[in-house]
Specification:
single chain, alpha/beta, 8 helices, 10 strands, globular
Length: 246
């Protein structure tokens, strides 16, 4: 069974004549070790889909199943616990706490889950080393570049050993070199560290790091593209498909 399943997932905002359907009966599945990108024009439902998959919002109808657990059936407290333990989040704006250093920021999910300070620090240090920041453990966010801050965010997303990582425009604030590094890191999260990764992006080049791309338009999943890894033409394939769907 797939790690992530969405069944007829629908989200409507508002009522009556002012109602807006942000997502319309979306069906998808994501396997372990799979890297899936979600693309489409602004307002097509990309972030809505990601937030529903992560339990950050509840659907109007349909359901999300994570690792065999239906999110619809969970209370708010249980949903919070599931998010903290089974899902890692990476956002465009990094969302690091300014007064905490890299280790303290990366440790937050396990600290909030009740781990003792020594265990939390050790786990955060382990993941910061894995993402290439072992030399900046005690640096605060304002002492780090954008790419380094996003690496801290990736370490934070992985520190609780979740099976699923959700990334919302993770390269949106980065230069091209740092963007490539973060996309390659998310590729590593899927391949080497055996997580499922779902990433929203508007960038064809960044999407080309994925195994599979879902294209949304007006709340509907309208197409899918599977990619062969290490193919230098992937970014062009993605851009061509976007043009065809425009």
């Amino acid at each position: 069974m797939s790690l992530v399943q969405a069944e007829n997932l629908t989200k409507v905002y508002g009522d009556g004549e002012t109602a807006v359907t942000a997502l319309d009966h979306a069906n998808l599945s994501v396997d372990m070790r799979e890297f899936v990108a979600v693309m489409g024009p602004s307002g097509c439902g990309k972030s809505t889909l990601l937030y529903l998959l992560g339990g950050l919002d509840r659907p109007t109808s349909g359901r999300v199943i994570i690792d065999g657990q239906s999110l619809t059936d969970l209370s708010d407290d249980d949903l919070t616990r599931l998010r903290r333990q089974r899902i890692g989040f990476v956002f465009q704006a990094y969302n690091l706490i300014p007064m905490l250093d890299a280790t303290e920021n990366a440790a937050l999910p396990v600290t909030l889950d009740g781990a003792n300070p020594g265990q939390a620090k050790a786990k955060a240090t382990e993941w910061l080393n894995k993402v290439g920041l072992g030399h900046r453990l005690h640096s605060r966010p304002d002492q780090l570049s954008g790419g380094q801050q996003q690496r801290v965010a990736v370490a934070r997303a992985l520190v609780a050993e979740p099976k699923l990582v959700l990334a919302d425009e993770p390269t949106g604030n980065l230069d091209s070199r740092s963007s490539d590094e973060i996309a390659a890191l998310l590729r590593q999260v899927a391949n080497e560290w055996e997580r499922a990764v779902v990433m929203v992006t508007h960038d064809s080049h960044i999407a080309s790091y994925a195994d599979r791309i879902l294209f949304l338009r007006d709340g509907l999943i309208v197409d899918e593209l599977r990619l062969e890894q290490r193919n230098g033409a992937n970014a062009d394939l993605v851009a061509d498909r976007l043009r065809q769907l425009a």
